[in-house]
Amino acid sequence: MPELPEVETTKRGLEPLIIKRKITSVHIYKKKLRWEIPKHLVTTLKNQTIQKISRRAKYLLVDFSDGQLVMHLGMTGSISVVSDSEPLKKHHHFELKLDNNTCMRFHDPRRFGSILWQKNNEQLSLLKKLGPEPLSYEFDEGTLFEAAIGKTINIKTFIMDSHVVVGVGNIYASESLFRAGISPKRKAGKTSKKRYQILVKCIKDVLLESINNGGTTLNDFSNVGGEAGYFYQILSVYDRKDRPCNRCSGTIKKIVQNQRATYYCPKCQH
Predict the structure, then answer these.
(1) Where are the domains of the chain?
(2) Least packed by Cβ within 10 Å: which of 94, 122, 159, 167?
């Protein structure tokens, strides 16, 4: 599933290709995604100009004069900008034709993604309860420590909770905990503020490095240009079961937490 770095990479790739472009037509080819694509977008967006694109958690927000297009890539979604003469592929669901003979297309084979609309001064319910952005000043050791008080869940599940902090997906949670030297089995409420300070820095570092390397190459993710990310090549623990730890003489182990695979080194993470 595309995570925060992959979505940020997509946003950065789209910016120079769609900002200030006027939409000449809108096409909904297959309306059923996680939720049905609103049919009014065909008329609502026609002749409007794209003002900016931003990211909130794993959602892409495309701004227009009277609202925002809210897009989520789901498990297998991707967005590309191509010539409007390029043939459609089997799983293209949505298309914005632009005034420079290009079009922005949403492709999603498994249809867990979403394309929604919110008017100005309104906010979709799925955006209202999101935690702070991990790369923002609002996310610090105090935020994590206070949110963890009394929590008996393991710390990996805790930092993957989007109400606590957004965008720390499975891969990045394992990698951040490894860098911080914290066992993923440690209880969130039994972790000191000092250790959370170290973990916050590691989360920020891991996410920034992944963004700078274009995300990971897992599953079906590719960026706007169709290229895979490269961060997967430098992962320290994820998908490295039974391989030697690159920090000590330990061996990477795999366990399952909250139905997700977790990789860690029992010797240097405690």
Answers:
(1) 4-128, 141-264
(2) 122
